[in-house]
Structures are given as structure tokens and as C-alpha cells.
Design a protein that fits this description.
single chain; about 650 residues; mainly alpha; 36 helices; about 30% helix; signal; Multiheme_Cytochr_ET; Multihaem_cyt_sf; oxidoreductase activity; Paired_CXXCH_1
Length: about 650
């Protein structure tokens, strides 16, 4: 190391402590006071106070972050997890209850907040309402009967668990044990049950909540039970008086003889009566062990009706209500699938309103409703078996081919056949609810308004739309049935003959484009022209009016319908569609007299040559001469060419 470097290093070692010692060390800052969530969100404090005196423990202790995330890129009080996982992190007892055999559906679906409030509530357990009122929000039907079970006064939780239970219907314990915990007097019980010791299956015959019958009996009671004829089925004596006399199935058939029919319900056919029925009583007639919908779908799984992943857009009301017996018999039927009646009659027993007229759709007339509809549910509206268009076209194949045409009626193109046709019954042919003419105007109201008070084309006035248009599709625009001119000439035959016969044809008429000049439905102008005649002609023949503003117009040409003074409108034998030879037309107004001869330098003009010198529509001055003249003619010197002859 060089000596100079050694001196720098020694100096740095000497002065560094001095420099470091002179810099003032920073003073420790006092810790900032933390704010609670409610200090920044005072509105929640008001809400908590307003909702009730019972406060959720985390809220009471200010531990908002027990449930909510404190940070996030997006503003909002986001929960740490969704209910019920969020709630069950603390409520372990409820977690245990949810692991039992029967779970309250809202709790099973995580609907904790259907019954509870998250921050504070007016009721214990953070319930929104008192327990019984909360239960009756969903279970109002338990109070339908006029006779109420006295136990209801003790509240729902006297018999039920709120979240989960190992017993059916969320019961605290076995139903019979619950009943006998109050109904302890065996003497009274025995007397009420025809001297039988009944200690189980109480709710088979009795409704535990309310009933329209005395003793809270179910609406459907086995007849022997109501009469106390227990001996009909049970031994009734000895050590086991409630023992059955024999095979229960045979016991049923002894009173309910087996019926015969074209189709049999399999359990009925096998004598398995108790598969569907209870032996004593039931809430559902006739002694069904469950509500019909739930009972039937035990075997007839909805998967047979509804394929997985299939979206249901329509559902038959009896299916929706679980009222399977509205259409099916429980035991036997003379129809397939245990249908109660012939399909057509069965459907009409509810859908009588479809008879809107004397004309019937063939499947409807034959009662073949299932040709178009499914009986239970469908991915299409109105229980249709297929998309409406595909369904209609499966039979109406000739109509289906019209889809390939150039111009399609909007409902037809959209497959909305029922926009125009009634699929069942109608007043008129083709299953139309009204005459085709009226039908069109149910959608095309604008046309009626547009021509209100104006002169209208005769077919339009008579609403004979199908005279010109096709109802479904056509090869021509606006569903015109044929080329437009052929349709027009059907009625306007004289015009048609002229157009086909004459040598000179007005170009729009020659092209069959009648609507270039005429409005097909009507209008305020003569002949339903699109504009006043003069304006209409000038829209194409603009040169005719070249001198009308700065010059002189030929008076007939300037008149409103003056064009037709000299010209044909559709066809003619002469050039420019003139009605007669040009000179003859001129002489119809301009007689050859002395004044005319004098105006022509004493030369008698030939009628054949008027338009040689004169513009028949207008010119720069009143002589009506063409703007470019032969120089001798311009000077009035005819002799160089005509030699003085007249």
C-alpha cells in the first residue's frame, strides 16, 4: 500500500466516530392510536343498536375481523368464508347437529341468515323473530286445523330440534316417546283406544299439530280404526292382542277385493299394499304413507322424467303440485301407464278451454295430445315434445320446404307457427283464430293507420292480403306470390295487354316494377302514385324541366298532369310514348293560320317538323326553339336552303 493511501485510511478511522457522534439519533415516535371498525363505520353501530338487544359476541367485543376480511383490493365487508362454514367455525354444537340423520333444509343449504341475523337481533340466539313465529314463516300449514294440539303452547322446540336430529321431522326423540311424556294416564289412553294398550305409532292416526277432526285425528283414517274394529286385522286377545291375524296383504284383500284392468301398478299386482298405504291413518287420502308426489317419486324417479342437465322450461301443474293421482290410478287402469282415462278425455277434463272453434287440429280431434306434448315436463314451452317448428314440420313437410324460399314471413322464419295458427281448435280454416285478412292486421297495424282516411287499393280495402302475398314464404320480396307485374295485370288486364303488345314500353313497366310509380296498398295521389304525377315523371326525366326556372316552360308540360296530355304512361306504338304523331299533337293546340305562317317568315310549317326546331317542354325564350340553331336559321334567312319556295 502506498504511504498516501495509509494516511487517508488513518484519517477516516479517526474522524468517522466524531462525524457519527455529531449526527442526532431519531427520537422514537409515539404509537398511533388504533381505531376500531365501528369508529370508521358508525352506521353499522347504529344498525347493531337498531336491530336488537341481543348482540353477536364478536360484534360486542369489536372483533369484526372474526368474520370479515380486514383488507382487500376491492372495497366491501367481505366474509372470510360463506355460511355455514363461517358460522360453524365457532358454533361447534350446531356442527354436530348438522351431522345427524335429519337436517333442517335451510341449515343444510347454508341458509343461516334465513332465521338468524349476523350482528344483532331482537331474539335470543340472534333469531329474527320469536322461535314459533320464525318456524311458522315456512310451516304455516301446521295450524290449518281448527283443533290445535295443546303442546303448541309450549313452543315448537318442545318437540323439535332446530338444526338436526336422528329422528324424522327433527323430533327431539321418538314420536311416541314425546307423546307419552305428556299423555301419561294409561287408563284414559286405553279407554280412548277401544281398550287396547297403544304406546307407539301415535302420529299415524293423530296429527301432532292441528286437525279438523276430534282427538286430532288425521283426515284419512282406516274405517275399522274409526269404528274400533281392531279385531278385523289384529288378534285382539291373549298375550299379544295387537298381533296381526295373518299375512297383512291377504288381510287387505279380504276387504278390498283385487280389481283387474289393462294395466296394473306393480306393488298392487304383487299385493304389497303397505308399500304405499299406512294401516291406520294418514294425512293423505287414501291412507297414503306419504304425500302423493313424494310417494310416487320413491320408485318413479324424476330422473326418468327429467334427464340430467336438461333445462325444464315447462312443467305440468299436477307434477309441480305432486298430484300424480290427478292423471294416474293407484291400482289398475284400462289405459296404459295407469292413466285414469283415455289421454284425450283426460287432458280435456282440465284443458276444456282449448276448444275455441269448430275446426280441430287432427291430433287434437283424435285425442292424441301426446303427439305434440309431454305429460310431465319439457325443455320447451307448453310441454311440447320438440321445438315448435320442428314439431309442426314433422307432419307439415310440404310447408317445411318453403323455408328454402327467398322471402320468409317473420313468424314463419322464427318458427313461431302458433303466432298465427291455433294448435288445437280454431274458428277458421288452417286453424286460424280469425279470417286470414283480419289476422294480418293483428300485427301489421301500421299499414291500417298509414292509410286511414286515404284512398286504398281495392284488395287492401277488402283486406284480401293473400291475393298478392303468401302467408309463409315466396321467391319474391315481401312474400309476393309471383312477379309483381303478373299479379297487377291479373286485375289491370288492359294495362297488361298494352305492355305485352306495344312496341314502346315505359321502362318501369317493361321491368315489371309497378311499385316504382304506384303504391301497392293505396295513397292520396291519383292512381295511388307515389308522388304528384309531374314530380314523379321529373324524378326520372329531369331534363324536361331544364328551362322552367330560367326560361319559358311549355304550358301543357308544366301543368300538374300535363305529361299525360302528350304521353302514354305505360306503353304505346310511338317513340317517347307519344299518344299521336308529334305534329298532330302540336296542331291540336297550334292551328296553322296567318299568324303562325307569319311567325315562320311567311313559310307554312310542316306538322311533321315541329319538334325539329321546337323543344316541346320548354326553351330559353317564348319561341320554344332548341338552344343551338343553324346559323342561317338563327338569322331568319331561310333562302340559302329553301330558295324562296313556300
Amino acid at each position: 500500500m502506498k504511504p498516501t493511501s495509509i494516511k487517508w485510511l488513518a484519517g477516516l478511522v479517526f474522524f468517522f466516530p466524531l462525524i457519527f457522534g455529531c449526527v442526532q439519533s431519531p427520537q422514537p415516535q409515539a404509537p398511533r392510536a388504533k381505531k376500531t371498525c365501528l369508529e370508521c363505520h358508525p352506521d353499522y353501530k347504529t344498525l347493531v343498536t337498531k336491530e336488537g338487544p341481543v348482540i353477536h359476541q364478536p360484534v360486542a367485543s369489536g372483533q369484526c375481523n372474526g368474520c370479515h376480511r380486514p383488507h382487500g383490493l376491492v372495497g366491501g365487508a367481505f366474509l372470510k368464508s360463506d355460511p355455514p362454514q363461517l358460522c360453524l367455525r365457532c358454533h361447534q354444537k350446531t356442527l354436530e347437529e348438522l351431522r345427524r340423520q335429519t337436517v333442517h333444509p335451510p341449515a343444510q343449504k347454508g341458509g343461516c341468515f334465513l332465521c338468524h341475523l349476523p350482528h344483532s337481533a331482537p331474539q335470543k340466539g340472534l333469531l329474527k323473530k320469536p322461535v314459533d313465529s320464525q318456524c311458522l314463516e315456512c310451516h304455516q300449514d301446521v295450524l290449518k286445523g281448527v283443533n290445535k294440539h295443546q303442546a303448541l303452547e309450549e313452543g315448537c322446540l318442545r318437540c323439535h330440534q332446530p338444526h338436526g336430529s336422528d329422528q324424522p321431522d327433527l323430533l327431539q326423540e321418538k314420536s311416541s316417546s314425546l307423546c307419552l311424556s305428556c299423555h301419561t294416564d294409561k287408563t284414559i289412553l286405553k279407554k280412548a283406544h277401544f281398550n287396547f294398550d297403544i304406546s307407539q305409532a301415535c302420529i299415524q292416526c293423530h296429527d301432532p299439530h292441528s286437525s279438523g277432526q276430534k282427538s286430532l285425528l288425521r283426515p284419512s283414517i282406516h274405517q275399522p280404526v274409526t269404528k274400533g274394529e281392531c279385531n278385523s286385522c289384529h288378534i285382539g286377545r291373549g298375550e299379544h292382542p295387537l298381533g296381526l291375524k295373518g299375512d297383512p296383504q291377504e288381510g287387505c284383500l279380504s276387504c278390498h277385493p283385487k280389481e283387474t284392468g289393462a294395466s296394473h301398478h306393480l306393488p298392487y299386482d304383487r299385493g304389497k299394499c303397505l308399500t304405499c298405504h299406512g294401516p291406520h291413518g294418514s294425512a293423505w287420502s287414501p291412507l297414503l304413507s306419504k304425500a302423493p308426489g313424494a310417494l310416487c317419486t320413491q320408485c318413479h324417479s324424476t330422473q326418468k322424467v327429467q334427464k340430467p342437465g336438461r333445462q325444464i322450461r315447462s312443467e305440468h301443474k299436477p307434477v309441480k303440485d305432486g298430484d300424480c293421482l290427478a292423471c294416474h290410478r293407484g291400482h289398475i287402469s284400462q289405459q296404459k301407464s295407469l292413466i285414469a282415462e283415455e289421454p284425450g278425455k283426460l287432458c280435456l277434463s282440465c284443458h276444456e278451454g282449448i276448444k275455441k272453434g269448430p275446426i280441430a287440429h287432427r291430433p287434437t280431434a283424435k285425442g292424441q295430445c301426446l303427439t305434440c306434448h309431454l305429460p310431465h315436463d319439457s325443455s320447451q314451452p307448453h310441454l311440447l315434445g320438440k321445438e315448435e317448428k320442428k314439431l309442426c314440420f314433422s307432419c307439415h313437410q310440404k310447408t317445411a320446404k318453403e323455408e328454402n324460399k327467398f322471402s320468409l314471413h317473420t313468424p314463419f322464419a322464427s318458427g313461431r307457427c302458433s303466432d298465427c295458427h291455433d294448435p288445437h281448435y280454431a274458428q277458421t280454416k288452417y286453424l286460424l283464430p280469425e279470417s286470414p285478412n283480419q289476422m294480418c292486421f293483428s300485427c301489421h297495424q301500421r299499414l291500417e293507420k298509414e292509410f286511414k282516411g286515404e284512398k286504398v287499393h281495392a284488395p287492401f280495402a277488402r283486406k284480401q292480403c293473400l291475393t298478392c302475398h303468401d302467408a309463409h314464404a315466396a321467391e319474391y320480396a315481401f312474400q309476393i306470390k309471383r312477379p309483381l307485374d303478373t299479379i297487377c295485370f291479373d286485375c289491370h288486364s288492359q294495362v297488361g295487354q298494352m305492355v305485352r303488345r306495344e312496341a314502346v314500353v315505359h321502362p318501369p313497366a317493361e321491368k315489371g316494377n309497378c311499385q316504382q310509380c304506384h303504391r301497392p296498398h293505396g295513397g292520396e295521389k291519383p292512381w295511388y302514385l307515389r308522388e304528384d304525377l309531374k314530380d314523379l315523371c321529373l324524378s326520372c326525366h329531369q331534363d324536361v324541366s331544364n328551362y322552367w326556372r330560367q326560361g319559358v316552360a311549355h304550358p301543357p308540360a308544366e301543368e300538374e298532369e300535363g305529361c299525360l296530355t302528350c304521353h302514354q304512361s305505360h306503353a304505346g306504338s310511338r317513340k317517347a310514348l307519344l299518344k299521336a304523331p308529334a305534329g298532330k299533337i302540336c296542331l291540336s293546340c297550334h292551328k296553322i293560320d296567318q299568324a303562325l305562317v307569319s311567325a315562320h317568315n311567311d313559310i307554312t310549317p310542316s306538322p311533321k317538323s315541329c319538334t325539329t326546331c321546337h323543344n316541346p317542354h320548354g326553351a330559353p325564350d317564348e319561341r320554344m326553339l332548341w338552344p343551338v340553331e343553324h346559323p342561317p336559321f338563327e338569322k331568319g334567312n331561310c333562302l340559302p336552303c329553301h330558295g324562296g319556295g313556300r
